[in-house]
Design goal:
The structure is a homodimer of 514-residue chains.
Chain A: H1 3-13, H2 19-24, H3 33-42, H4 49-61, H5 65-81, H6 84-97, H7 102-113, H8 127-147, H9 152-160, H10 165-182, H11 186-202, E1 209-212, H12 219-228, H13 237-243, E2 248-254, E3 264-271, H14 278-283, E4 295-303, H15 314-328, E5 334-337, H16 344-356, H17 369-378, H18 388-396, H19 407-427, E6 429-430, E7 433-434, H20 437-444, E8 448-453, H21 460-466, E9 470-474, H22 480-490, H23 497-507
Parallel strand pairs in A: 4-5
Antiparallel strand pairs in A: 1-2, 2-3, 3-4, 6-7, 8-9
Helix pairs in contact in A: 1-12, 3-5, 4-5, 4-9, 6-11, 7-8, 9-10, 9-11, 10-11, 16-18, 17-18, 17-19, 19-23
Chain lengths: 514, 514
């Protein structure tokens, strides 16, 4: 069943909002995030670019509140009706023509530089005089703080307090990011950096409500979970119900201005042991009785707003969920993930391909001699004269992952791929941080690499991205902060002895990998 | 029964949290606002001033997250244990020694002034060159924005994301306001102005949840309503239940970081007509059947955090409640308040007292000749040779408001006090705005003065503050924004014909009072 079909099924089968939440959680109709979301479909009446630009200008320059509300709705509806190209054009205008007033800034600076800095810390015997003198500093500093805000700050702030505006701003930021991906324009980067800072403030964890998502939630919310689950797609109603049922937890962060739609959510399985394969997490039945569980396994974390890229809500979410689960279920003492290694195969295949073109890749060989022999033996058919790496490339890039149909290939490839995967996770860096995005996410949150699992995700996506390997990142409560700090300051990646062992013959038994 | 007793009664009689809210509205224990609230009682282990100062310094200067959490808790607990005097001392240190780095600011300014402003709007034919040139501006402007933040910004921001921190910051601001009330210190004013701006951002209406408070809410929340109801104290459990029952509504704004405690709440009565007395709102039984109601009467609005003074949450609350009620109950078409005039008697008594000392007060006489005669007649006992104003002062300042025991005085005083009240509301200004704080609040929200009501609040407080008079401010949906705008820009006070009539003989039939 496709997602739309499921959503319709969910809508028709779910029971309505429970009376308590209906009475107690009020939201004005125009505040409903859905309104803005559907505007993108419903109000695609083609609108003149000039009109939208005009409404943007009104929003920035107006004073009166009522007409302002109208202008804000006008602008956001108009924006949604624009083509991608016109949106880009509009954002460039915003970045360039609604920048800050540089002559005003310079004027204030001139006044400021003319002031004399009082001696001491302002607490000397002439306290009052110093205070009086300082007040000129305070005044100009305050004015400068305001003058240094670009004019488009007004647009962002007004949108933020406008119903549906926060979500609209996330859409705008997604558009800004797509311009930056196309072309590196300084003014657009400044616009992005300013909006990102604002969004970080507005989406501070203090403003987010941790919500346990259950089968009792409205279908309109559950539908979002189905639509946005990015790691292990939810295949049907039974699948969804199971993920919210006994032995499972699902938590999301909800912002009051975007009700009924978590910005990010995490799925947790309560288990006896740290699972080795995603199949057992998703499909084994029945689940472990909750009273026997000792492990909380985070098996999926998905964010729903592309426009919030670079704003790490996941870190806070994981921390709060750990604390919450620990408090509710004191018998749970292990916190771990079962995660994909989404960049592994792309990295490996490009390395193998460039080695075919005789570009050296590692200082050492990709394959160790005994691995190469075993591989050539197994791949008897026409392997004469070929090198192990060619064979490996051919196997791994075969359509439909044919190698996974053969027990022999599976067992020959196991040590090779696990060793290379450990090497990828532990040694491949970009600007001093782990190259793999999921690894980088958990490492910066303070996790360690605990275990690699062979044939842990046999889905199409799991094989294509991670060669079927999955990794358990371990959140060890007493070490989270130390590990996060070490990773942050030196890029040090903490890993278990088992994982380090895969590559230690090369790394000469270093205690850990930097 | 005192408030504490009622709170205990509420605790024991209320049913526990309903299962749905228990499951769906999770809050980590340390996020519970109560923790911080009770800290002020429980952790009054005297703490050394030096220790608290040290922990404040750590919070501002530290890097590591885990120890930071400890330092933040340490600091807030320590702060609560300080005497009022030591808190003031600490806040002065914060304002003066954790100010901004002025040499860094000047250094950046020097760099900035050295840059040449590119011609045009950056979109000319050499677009890229201009962009490249602008990026130096963007960089220094961004650095300056950061450098212009005082060091104490870090403390505020870290507290804001710390469990219980937002509420703690409200306490800190209340302390800052009390220092300013004592002494006008420039650095403390700068500290206050900075913190206030931050709080306005963090308490943006976009971050607040509108919550309908009902009898099904937890006792811990209802207890807060009892404790903070500032206008018409809640006298017992029946009173509270009635205010949350049929024909009544109560709405509050709740911030996710201060759960279970509205920052501000409003009480609404659904009625057939705009009520003339608070007695009928609070005590008439049974209430109007909701289907017959045409009027939503706002009879009380209370904020719970003294530290949020000057941050107008009420305006947004009233607007949202109007929209919500209108949507839920289309038969409701009148929105009005029944409000006290808290500054009326203080103003009048001081005017009368100064007129006794022969200081002229108004350009006209306080009493009109026929009023003076009637008053002296009624006050026959020893009124010989005395002036009407003396008699008025004596009557109004008598203990226990004796005049309210006499029908004759009540009827003689009615035209006098209503006229003077209209004069007070319409003409007495401070910095161009209505002198009366409640009037100023509703007028800036866009209400008009609709009707004065005689003997509308016979409570001790109502007689002492407002001479028993109450006023209906009318929120007329189609005019709210115009009225708010006119009041904001020119101080124009919109009033009904009836109210203007009280003073029109003096004001020569102007259309309205400026």
């Amino acid at each position: 069943m496709n997602k739309k079909g499921l959503a319709i099924l969910l809508r028709s089968k779910m029971r309505p909002l429970s009376p308590v939440s209906k009475v107690n959680k009020l939201q004005l109709a125009p505040l409903d995030g859905n309104k803005v979301a559907t505007q993108s479909d419903s109000s695609k009446t083609p609108r003149d670019f000039g009109q939208v630009r005009e409404s943007m200008h009104s929003v920035i320059s107006m004073n009166r509140k009522e007409i302002l509300d109208t202008a804000l709705s006008e602008f956001s509806e108009g924006y949604f009706s624009l083509s991608q190209e016109n949106r880009h054009k509009l954002l460039l205008i915003l970045a360039r023509e609604y920048d800050l007033n540089r002559s005003q800034v310079r004027e204030l600076m001139k006044q400021y530089v003319g002031l004399e800095i009082p001696k001491g810390d302002g607490t000397d015997e002439h306290g009052h005089e110093v205070e009086g003198h300082l007040s000129s500093f305070y005044r100009i500093e305050r004015n400068l703080r305001h003058a240094l805000n670009p004019m488009y700050a007004v647009l962002f702030e007004r949108l933020n307090t406008h119903p549906g505006g926060l979500k609209f701003l996330a859409t705008v930021r997604a558009d800004i990011l797509s311009i930056i991906a196309d072309e590196n324009v300084a003014s657009i980067r400044a616009l992005d950096s300013y909006l990102k800072e604002k969004l970080i403030t507005w989406l501070s964890p203090a403003n987010l409500e941790l919500h346990q998502i259950t089968w009792d939630d409205p279908a309109s919310l559950l539908e979002k979970i189905v639509a946005y689950e990015a790691v292990h797609p939810i295949s049907n109603l039974i699948d969804l119900k199971r993920r919210l049922g006994t032995g499972r937890r699902c938590f999301g962060y909800i912002h009051p201005a975007i009700p009924g739609e978590p910005l990010i959510f995490i799925e947790v399985a309560l288990m006896k042991n740290i699972a080795c394969t995603i199949q057992e997490v998703l499909w084994h039945d029945p689940p472990t009785p909750e009273c026997e569980a000792t492990t909380a396994l985070f098996y999926s974390i998905s964010s729903t707003q592309p426009g919030l890229a670079g704003i790490n809500l996941g870190k806070f979410l994981i921390k709060r969920v750990i604390h919450l689960v620990k408090k509710d279920m004191p018998n749970i003492s292990n916190f771990a993930t079962l995660s994909p290694i989404p960049g592994f195969m792309q990295w490996l295949l490009s390395k193998l391909a460039s080695s075919e073109r005789s570009v050296p890749i590692f200082s050492e060989n990709i394959l160790q001699p005994h691995e190469e022999r075993a591989l050539l033996d197994a791949y008897s058919e026409s392997s004469e004269g070929r090198k192990g790496m060619e064979v490996l490339l051919q196997l791994l890039s075969s359509s439909n992952h044919e190698w996974t149909q053969s027990d022999r290939f599976i067992s020959e490839l196991q040590p090779i791929l696990l060793r290379l995967c450990a090497r990828y996770l532990l040694c491949e860096k970009k600007r001093g941080k782990a190259l793999d995005s999921v690894a980088n996410f958990h490492l910066q949150n303070g996790a360690m690499i605990g275990r690699l699992n062979w044939m842990a995700d046999r889905s199409e996506k799991g094989l294509t991205q991670s060669g079927g390997v999955m990794v358990n990142y371990i959140y060890s409560l007493e070490h989270i902060e130390d590990y996060a700090q070490a990773y942050f300051s030196t890029g040090h990646i903490q890993a278990s002895h088992d994982v380090r062992n895969y590559i230690e013959p090369m790394e000469k038994n270093e205690d850990s990998i930097n």
